[in-house]
Amino acid sequence: MAIIFIGLGSNEGDSFQILSDAYLDLKKNVGYLIASSSIYESSPWGFESENSFLNAVLKFETNHTVEEIMNILQYLESKAGRKRNESENYTDRTLDLDLLYYDNLISDEEELTIPHPRISERLFVLNPMVEIDAEWIDARHNKSIKQLLEETTDSSFIEKSSKINFN
After folding, report:
1. In this structure, are residues 88 and 119 in contact, taking their beta carbons and an 8 Å threshold?
2. What is the C-alpha separation between 134 and 28, in angstroms, rounded?
3. Contacting residues for 59 by C-beta, under 8 A, at least 6 apart
4. Are 8 and 124 contacting, i.e. CB atoms less than 8 angstroms apart?
5. pLDDT: which is higher, 146 or 121
6. Which has the closest alpha carbon to 74: 47, 41, 98, 50?
7. Residue 115 to residue 138: CA distance in whole angstroms
8. Cβ(95)–Cβ(18) below 8 Å
9. Nearest in space to 19 (alpha carbons), one of 1, 44, 39
10. Which residues sit opposite 7 in a β-bridge?
């Protein structure tokens, strides 16, 4: 069994419904859901857009291999209408699912970089992660999520939603 964290994000279409559907699909297909964060509203990171994001993080216990998890995530993104951007630039998206951690695995292969390389730079990942497992150790930085949050230079807008959540 592996412990994994999956980041969810959406800023196109009915973002809450898209995240809710993804949440249910992930619960059905990934494994045992240990914890789910609140939903956060955040400004786009790395590009300009008028559309705010909704973000959350889920923690699972799974029997799936890392490759199987990646296939599930890509299938669910496609199912939600996500069109892959061929350029290196970030864009609006219906659904973005990121495998943030797979146990303590470190991989820098072209098709799989884990832990996700920019976790320490993103409040929209760090805030929900602290909520569900502040003491998780990032294997790349050898620091807890709480430490990464304290040290991040990200100052973008983020706010916990008081209106919408999975639970």
Report:
1. no
2. 26
3. 3, 4, 5, 33, 34, 35, 36, 132, 133
4. no
5. 146
6. 98
7. 7
8. yes
9. 39
10. 57, 98
pLDDT at 91: 59
Pairing relationship of beta strands 96-102 and 107-109 according to DSSP bridges:
unpaired
Strand partners, 55: 9, 40
Give 8-65 pLDDT, tens digit per residue. 999 888 888 999 999 999 999 999 999 999 999 887 755 465 777 899 999 999 999 9
Is this prediction's pTM over 0.85? yes
**Would residue 129 be called left, alpha or beta, if left means φ above 0 and alpha means ψ between -120 and 50 degrees?**
alpha
Give me the amino acid identity at 42: S
Region 127-136: what's the mean pLDDT? Answer: 96
What token pair was written down for 147? 């430490």
Which tokens is 98 given?
């990121």
- Domains detected in the chain: 2-160 (3.30.70.560)
CA distance 124 to 101: 15
pLDDT of 84-121, one tens digit each? Answer: 555 455 556 779 899 999 999 999 887 888 998 889 98
